[in-house]
Amino acid sequence: MTLGLINANPVVHAKKERVARNDDSHAEDAVDPLEIYDYVRDIRDPEHPYSLEQLSVLSEESITVDEKLGRILITFTPTIQHCSMATVIGLCLREKLKDCFPPHFKVDIKVAPGSHANEESVNKQLNDKERVAAALENPNLRQLVDECLYSSEL
Amino acid sequence: MADSIQWIQHVELYVSSSATPSQQVASVDAVATLLKNDLLTLEALVREMEMYLTTTDSIIRCRGILLLGELLAQLTLKPLDSTSIHSLIGFFTERLADWKALRGAIVGCLALLRRKSDVGRVTDSEAKAVAQSYLQNLQVQSLGQHDRKLSFQLMECLLDRYAGAMADLGDNLVYGICEAIDGEKDPQCLLLVFHIVESLAQLSPGPLANFAEDLFEILGCYFPIHFTHPKGEDDDVKREELARALMLAFASTPLFEPFSIPLLLEKLSSSLPSAKVESFKYLSYCTAKYGPERMAKHAEALWASLKDTTYLSPQSMLSMEPESMSRMNFQESDVMTEAFVLLQEVIRQYGEFISLIIGDNDINAFLISLNQYKGFDDIPLQVKQKLHAVGHILSACAKASAAMCNKVFESFFPFLMDGLGLSVAQPSQNNSYLDEECFSLAKFKFGPLYLCIELIAACKSLTLSLYNCTSIHDFPHQRWCSLLSSFSESLVKAFVSMLRSNVADNEQSAYVYCGVKGLQILATFPGSFTPVSKSVNDNIFLELVSIITSDSNKTFEWTSALKALVEIGFSIDKCLDSEKAASFESTVVEKIVSLISSLDSAIPLSLRLQAAFEIGATRKDFMLRVVRGLDESIDTNFSAVFDHGNHKSDELTIKLLDTYSQKVLPWFLEIGGSEEVQLNFALRIWDKIENFRALNLSPPEFTSISYQDLLGATMTAMKKAVASCSEESQEIIINKASGVLFSSTVFGSMGFKSGSSILKEEGLQQTQNYGNSSGRDEWLTSLFASVVVALRPQTGISNRKMILQLFITSLLNGHVPSAHALGSLVNKLPLETKGIKSSRSLSLNEALDMIFHSFVGTCRDDSTSGNDGSGVNINSLRLNTSRIQLEFNTVIGLAWIGKGLLMRGHEKVKDITMTLLSFLTLDCEAGVSKQFQNLAEVLDEEGVHQLMKCAGDAFHIIMSDSGECLNRMYHATVRPLYKQRFFSTIMPILLSLVVKSESSFVRSMLYRAFAHVVSDTPLTAILGEAKKLFPILLECLSTLSKDVSDKGIIYSVLLVISGILLDKNGQEAAVENASSIVNQLIELTAYPHMMAVRETAIQCLVAVSELPHARVYPLRTKVLRTISKALDDPKRIVRQEAVRCRQAWASIASRSIHF
């Protein structure tokens, strides 16, 4: 196990400006990618005091949603190919969305094709209910996830 | 002599270390009072305290001396003889050597040194002795913070008040001070230190000369002021304060110059922007203080650093507003702003500086390079930044003085003119440039154009400043002036041709901006110094006006031309230039005013009105001229509406009236002075009405919407006009109005037509069922009501009885403005009528009697209301009207009257409230109110319910603020805290009624009234009662949530609850009701009719989660279950709130959300 950082020098991007939406007061607001993005963009990276948005792990375009079927698909891009933090980021996303959406939404989380060395195994791990539940019972992992979700360092 | 035992006790208390600080302060005060009142002499005190002052126990000695010092500090105003002062100061001076009991000695010295000479003062030699002892004995830097502060205060006091004595101390003093202040770090002490250095420098420079370098070495380390611990406990000393004190110290003596200027120049290269800003600030200030001789040797270094900041690496941003994209509108950074301040200061102090700028190779090369760019868009951003900087530098130079201006003009102006391709105009040309001709835009290069405009603008401000302060005008002989006037004609020509180009793309708008700005500057040179001749000046006016009158499609050009004209108008007004004013009036004002009424103009009326108002606002007589134009236009349009039923005129008139009420009247109110305009306006309208009545004309189609709007606009304008008049003018208006009103046969006989057809209409509430009587009558009554609403309380009204009667009658016919007028009347009527009791005057009580007689009587018992004094048979009237409608009107009327009474704090409001409440509880089967029985028989159940609802809503009228009437603008009498008072009287009554009521409908109506009262009461009043109110509020919510139409009320009640929950005291009240609050809120999170209700309910739930853990923990599961449903809400905002709420509640147990 290496003690150093996995990606010591990540590229930091500027935060995009938050647009206040002027909603039509009568129509229903469908869940759209931007809404989901607004929830997850400020999750802190497990390694660095930057948000996933700043590290360009996530973007609005990488999220798709189908409200009728109740499906959300998030594709994220780890900063480097063999990032062992990819699973932690995925866990964070899953935890966050579980808090923010009613249980009838099915959330799929994937790494972007070609962005990770063990793409398939990471995807499989992230979408396996049992393994996610088991991972979150691990106190160390749990703490790490909570720190990312509720951190005020940003 | 006071009882010695008593004061000795105080002394003992103070000296003993066991007493609390407040006891000690009290004992000092007690002894000081004795001394002040001569019940105890200072001598006796000192003698008695001998033991404490001389004991070897240093703690007690310290306290003793401190007591004496503090007592003296309290006695600064008591005269003392010189012997006591002498011995006391001698004592304290000696004690300065006693480091164990130092504080008392410093306090004592300070107290004595601060005395004024008329109550006995320390002599110079004694002060000198203090200073010597200070310098010899005090090791300031080894003391604690408070003692250091005191000793610095002592030194400051010595330097400020005994400067002469201090100067004698010579080098010793400077040396001592250097030692004392070296290494000080506390902000409060530093503030004193900086001041000490400043005062020291003010002493004769003798002693300082040798030590200037040492002293500055100590000072210099503090620059720039920077707090390493930003949130220390010394927040009371601001960084700015310290920085300013240090700046004063830096600039205190020119002797610092050899050390400070190099330091500051060096700090300019710092990478910290704040350090740069500070350096520039200090440099500007020091330049002003050190004087030109000393600064001369730094000139080159200064210019180098200035050039570096402003020109070589300018830190300015193009402002991002789309409006100004096409202009050179740069946002300068602070550093740049300060740099320009310094530049100005240096030029002002040291004129030779300018030759550095003029001779600067970079700048000259830049000017030449500008010629390679043609249009505005060809210039890259970087070059634009430089252009902006150079423009600023040149204009700063030119502004400094006439001589500088000459130099700048000589060196740059001809070159710029060459760049623009302009030559000295031939005087013989007869206005040919106003014909279509000459310049093509391509010829004008933007760079020289911009600089040229900057230079002319600088000239103008120079002229303005000289114009204001000197009477000797030799401008024409100045070089710049002759240069400018020789080119002026071709410049004007060039500017005009820029405006005439018909291309409206981005690039051109930069030229349009320049053209307008150039013309504006040339036309605003004051008085006789204008470089342009009168005819050229007139041509400028004509050109700008022609833009206004011709084309509103090119909005940018139109607005900037208008702005320029307004600026010109203001400058003419400021310079008292009568000749120019005359030509401005004849060319501009007349033309614009004629626009108001022109029918076939291509420009929309709103723009024409805007132009007229803005031009008028430059000067009072212009505005009067505009007002005349408006009046005429209103006249013709009114006639068009009334005579011919012209619909188009409706809209025009409404716009005209709006301009009146929203712009013209407030403008006159602001500038104050005569109220002729308001008075005339009101009288004119009444004249109009009178004429129409005489002709027996009535407005056609009075039910149409635009007609109602017209009436509304007229009423608003009338109210505003009347409200801004004085009592006398108001009397004239009201007399005129009542003359018109009562001369009418209809009103004279008071045989009011009452709409028998109202029955058919069944239009509930206060809709315009008054409309069935003739439209003209409605006009008359409504306008009259608006006059009455706006009257001042002191205005005398004749014919009050008739007026009152009129309003009562028309109110009962459903005319709401009459209700406003009645409310205003009872709010403002005098309690007693003074003087002779004429039949026409009316006191409040009489008025109320009349009102109650007509209103309350009607609903109580039909048989009691027969003929009343005025001979008006309301009874007959009532029979004709639909019963239910009448009762509605009564309720609304009572509400407004009640509001009027409540605001002035009259007790009769109770009667009205009780009547309203009896309407509210109408439904009670048990026959709570027998007097309603016959009423209930007449009305069907539906009608009764509507009426009760209306009575509930009456409480909203009473409590809410109205824009229509009864506010400060319309001179209402407002008792402070009237809402609170009403709240506390009505609450117990409502609550007991709620308890008593058996019918659920009655209860729901009571809750309705309750909700209105609570939501308009200030939160602080509610917080006091929160504990009692919570159950009712919750009950109220659950009752009201049954009816969709009550969503607004629910929302306001919910806001009250959230207000309580966010307050600390309110939270205590909420604790007891936590579970029922949560239950109610949970229901509302699914309230389907209004998003804001759901959102607020969830926010309230978040607030509840802050309550004590033991209370809310059991509710957690329930809340979380509900909230997970809210996560699926159709509205995004609600979903987001739900996420927050879920997080808040989940985290009160643990991080995990499982339940």
Automatic annotation (TrEMBL), chain A:
One of its GO terms (biological process) is protein maturation. Residues 36-109 form the MIP18 family-like domain. Pfam families: FeS_assembly_P. Belongs to the MIP18 family. This is Protein AE7-like 1. Gene3D superfamilies: 6.10.250.1280, Fe-S cluster assembly (FSCA).
TrEMBL record, chain B:
It comes from Sesamum indicum (Oriental sesame). Belongs to the MET18/MMS19 family. Key component of the cytosolic iron-sulfur protein assembly (CIA) complex, a multiprotein complex that mediates the incorporation of iron-sulfur cluster into apoproteins specifically involved in DNA metabolism and genomic integrity. In the CIA complex, MMS19 acts as an adapter between early-acting CIA components and a subset of cellular target iron-sulfur proteins. SUPFAM superfamilies: ARM repeat (SSF48371). Keywords: DNA damage, DNA repair, Nucleus, Repeat. It is found in: Nucleus. GO terms for cellular component: cytosolic [4Fe-4S] assembly targeting complex; nucleus. GO terms for biological process: DNA repair; iron-sulfur cluster assembly; protein maturation. Residues 709-1103 form the MMS19 C-terminal domain. InterPro entries: ARM-like (IPR011989), ARM-type_fold (IPR016024), MMS19 (IPR039920), MMS19_C (IPR024687), MMS19_N (IPR029240). This is MMS19 nucleotide excision repair protein. Residues 46-309 form the MMS19 N-terminal domain. Pfam families: MMS19_C (PF12460), MMS19_N (PF14500).
